[in-house]
Design brief:
CATH class of the largest domain: Alpha Beta
Distance between the termini: 34 Å
Radius of gyration: 17 Å
Strand content: 15-25%
Helix content: 25-40%
CATH architecture of the largest domain: 3-Layer(aba) Sandwich
Strand order of the largest sheet: 1-2-3
CATH topology of the largest domain: Rossmann fold
Order of helices and strands: HHEHEHEHHEHE
Largest sheet: 3 strands, parallel
Number of helices: 7
Number of domains: 2
Length: 149
């Protein structure tokens, strides 16, 4: 269970723990199906490049949703028809709506969400290059980073 997920059941699969050829053999899809045999309900994809997001989508249950939070430009390895047959939803986002902002502000105001829990990395301004690299390569889990001048 991840603290930010509240009571929702969650699990993690670390890419570095998969076999070396996982990208070409659909290893992430298999690993996710091992964790949730019936398929995932949702995936939040923060991965900036490569096939991991699409492999996670292939592990979705019928009517599951993939939310792409990154600017990953890799094309899907399966036809759109596969998404239609499985009733998968793909949501790409680079921002939020006004309603999203109000909902988050309400969660913060009621204490249901603690913004401090979202900040996983802090950098002084002198380490701006390391901060940018950490945000872009996502080699370790990172929700938000703060750079302090």
């Amino acid at each position: 269970m991840l603290p930010l997920a509240g009571s929702l059941p969650t699990d993690l699969v670390a890419l570095e723990h998969l076999e070396e050829d996982w990208e070409s053999t659909q290893g992430l899809t298999r690993a996710l199906r091992d964790v949730v045999p019936g398929g995932l309900d949702a995936v939040l994809d923060f991965i900036p490049h490569g096939s991991a997001g699409w492999q996670a989508m292939a592990a979705l249950a019928t009517s599951g949703t993939l939310v792409r939070m990154s600017a990953n430009s890799s094309p899907p390895p399966f036809p759109v028809m596969a998404m239609m047959v499985n009733c998968w939803r793909f949501i790409g986002t680079r921002g939020s709506t006004r309603a999203d902002v109000h909902q988050v502000l309400d969660l913060l105001a009621t204490g249901a969400l603690n913004a401090g829990e979202l900040i996983t990395h802090r950098f002084p301004l002198t380490e701006i290059d390391q901060a940018i690299a950490a945000i872009q390569d996502r080699r370790e889990p990172i929700w938000m980073a703060v750079v302090t001048p």
